[in-house]
What does this fold into?
Amino acid sequence: MSANDFTARFGPWALVAGASEGLGLAYAEALAQRGMHLLLLARRGDALEQVATRLRAEYRIEVATVVVDLAAPDLATQLPNYLSDRDIGLLVYDAARTHIAPFETADLAHHLGIVDVNCRGPLTLCHALIPALRARGRGGIVLMSSMSSLQGSGLIASYAASKAFNSVLAESLWEELRTDGVAVMACLAGAIDTPSYRHNTPEHKQKRAMPMAPAAVAEDTLRALAAGRGPLFIPGRMNRLVAAIMRCFGSRARTRFFSRMTRDLYGG
It folds into this structure.
């Protein structure tokens, strides 16, 4: 699909949640290259405005920014102020919170924060945007899930569970909206070479998981969305191969296998 065709179907505005760095930034860049205007949401105002300034100058598009905590309890009531009268045709929800350690080592408040950002946030934004998407008869939703959503995994229990929520939500919305011209997809990514990945992973182990470049994940996903390859999409041929092989095993085997990989990767 050409850039003009993509914008005609999913434009003129895209909302990217978690756009200040990493994969969210890569999505913003990929959409800007397609001529989409952008509404960018993130907590880090300085970083967000730097991104917006560069994209405005480089791609001659409109870029609006909103500094917001997507875990805020009043997110739903504040959204109309953020959305204004913009004709948003595409939602990309990339914001995420995680905890990489035994479950009980984090306070309950931290686990609930994971639920707030990873589950309540995308649910709230979908609920706010879907009526207009359905009415206009075109548009799309991309929810960032993870290959960890395909089974449980030690050390990332809350994160993996929250990503399973996004996968099932995307599948359900895909079914509800597929006859209304609205494409819905959960992106089940593997390791991605983001600042968060580098921060959480010991330097000598960072290449072990063969992390994809953020730009490659964003491009793969947007192309798959335009091609109607929802509701679940795994970017990267190696990731798709691993997922296909693991389908041959039962839940216990998959959970133990990925738990060993997680402990090996994130261990000291």
